[in-house]
TrEMBL record:
Record EC number: 2.5.1.17
GO CC, one annotated term: cytoplasm
Compartments in which it is found: Cytoplasm
Lineage of the organism: Bacteria, Pseudomonadati, Pseudomonadota, Alphaproteobacteria, Rhodobacterales
Membership in a protein family: Belongs to the Cob(I)alamin adenosyltransferase family.
Organism this protein belongs to: Actibacterium naphthalenivorans
PANTHER family referenced in this protein's UniProt entry, alphabetically: CORRINOID ADENOSYLTRANSFERASE, CORRINOID ADENOSYLTRANSFERASE MMAB
InterPro entries from the UniProt entry: CblAdoTrfase-like, CblAdoTrfase-like_sf, PduO-typ
Name under which the protein is recorded: Corrinoid adenosyltransferase
Organism domain of life: Bacteria
Amino acid sequence: MVVLNKIYTKTGDQGETALGNGARIAKHALRVTAYGTVDETNATVGLARLHAADAMDARLAAIQNDLFDLGADLCRPDMDKDAEAEFPPLRMADSQVARLEAEIDAMNAALEPLRSFILPGGSALAAHLHLCRTVSRRAERLCVELAAAEPVNPAAVKFLNRLSDWFFVAARVANNGGKDDVLWVPGANR
């Protein structure tokens, strides 16, 4: 259980923050940037939910919870085995990736195949979902960069990769099942 009695602690006033394992790290460190961008993704999902109804809102709520799991995973780098045995870290699981894949497949089954790239937009929900997609792609790139330098749970990277695909397909669903997608016309304004 998390208890937040005091919101400001002044411990970050010198440009450092604490990771989930208690280690202090610069706020501009790649790990902090990665999980900060996951948090930014979560905020964009909150905006999308303002335009979502029922089933879509429920799926987006589940994604927001998963994004908090992902932030918890990324803010807790590997510790020694004794510490992890006593205080096991929350890690992303392949089952979370599989759920996204199943939802993508179910949504995509009802859509006509694309014959053109689409422009972000259409309905308000679709536009917000495209914003979610682009921010989650940035989070993915940062996690991949972090994984090249430090250990990162592979399921975390997979989740972000599927998540941006989920947002893309969900945006098509939000655009009247793809009928209101705004198609790219190459060279239209030459």
